[in-house]
Specification:
Elements: H1 2-24, H2 28-37, H3 42-61, H4 69-89, H5 93-130
Amino acid sequence: MKWTVRILQGLLAVGFLLFGFMKVSANPMQVDAFNNIYGYGTAFMYIVGIIEIIAAIGLIIGYWKKNLVPIFSGLLAIVMAGAVFTHLIAGQGFGVAMTPFILFILAIIVFYSQRRLINITTVVKKGEASL
């Protein structure tokens, strides 16, 4: 389970680095989608892109600082929940919203798995300290 979560964490980090750079670099497809389809401004696209990049870097740092993983995977889950909501409100249907929904589920899995591992480690360390 531990390695499965780490692999998911790495895949999320790489994916969101790429997604974030597409938004921050003002990819014409992203600009068109944010402005014309979703009705958001370009500034919001940049903000989402920066959040995705920061969260991806946080997941990478999370390999060494495990307490950061729940924070950044939770942040990505919130962003993906917003993406699902945006696709559905824009009338694109659940077929288009499926990709952010899957990423939302993966971020939730990483969030809860890492939270559980951190809690178990804390309990074990407290148990050792009291011996």
